[in-house]
């Protein structure tokens, strides 16, 4: 009888632990190039933020290299994975710079370094970004030609 009760409790615990957790869709490769006024934009952070009501987790993010190229990565559980799940996203591109023009360390709070956002709000603010993309199940390349004006 104790074995039956123990088994029943184990089943309830396992069922309860997973309740409400929906695994994300498999990630797909997303890459692209970011330019500002026709020139590559190095060291900018590109984030794909799931649109409201979306079920693709936290989205994905990447940092541009010296030629403006980026590749998204996302979190799957506690592990980083290349790509992001398919879905509809708002795209945010940010680049924090210090008063001397150098790029701020992402681990240092902006208030401590005096850093400010160097990208116009129409691209860098989650609430007002004009950028958006739909990532298909085959992934894709998404280039962003930003302007400072």
Task: Describe this entry's structure for a reader.
This protein has 149 residues and is α+β, with helices and mostly antiparallel strands. It has one domain: Immunoglobulins (Immunoglobulin-like, Sandwich). The chain contains three helices and 13 strands, in the order αβββββββββαβαβββ. The strands form four sheets. Strands 1, 2, 5, 12 and 13 form a five-stranded mixed sheet that branches. The chain has a four-stranded antiparallel sheet with strand order 4-3-8-11, with no helix packed on it. Strands 6-7 form a two-stranded antiparallel sheet. The longest helix is centred in the N-terminal third of the chain and has 16 residues. The chain is globular.
CATH architecture: Sandwich
Instruction: Determine the CATH topology.
Output: Immunoglobulin-like
Instruction: Supply the CATH superfamily name.
Output: Immunoglobulins
DSSP, total strands = 13
Low-confidence regions: 1-23
Question: How many structural domains in the coordinates?
Answer: 1
Rg measurement, Å = 20 Å
**Helicity, as a percent range:** 10-25%
**What's the rounded overall pLDDT mean?**
80
């Amino acid at each position: 009888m104790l074995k039956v009760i123990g088994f029943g409790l184990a089943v309830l615990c396992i069922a309860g632990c997973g309740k409400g957790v929906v695994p994300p869709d498999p990630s797909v490769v997303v890459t692209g190039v970011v330019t500002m006024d026709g020139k590559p934009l190095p060291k900018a952070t590109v984030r794909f933020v799931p649109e409201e009501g979306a079920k693709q987790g936290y989205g994905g993010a990447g940092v541009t290299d010296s030629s403006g190229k980026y590749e998204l990565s996302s979190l799957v559980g506690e592990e980083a994975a290349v790509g992001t799940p398919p879905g509809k996203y708002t795209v945010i591109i940010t680049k924090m710079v210090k008063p001397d023009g150098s790029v701020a360390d992402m681990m240092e709070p902006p208030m401590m370094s005096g850093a400010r956002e160097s990208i116009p709000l129409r691209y860098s603010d989650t609430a007002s970004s004009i950028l958006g993309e739909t990532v298909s199940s085959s992934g894709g390349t998404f280039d962003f030609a930003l302007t400072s004006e």
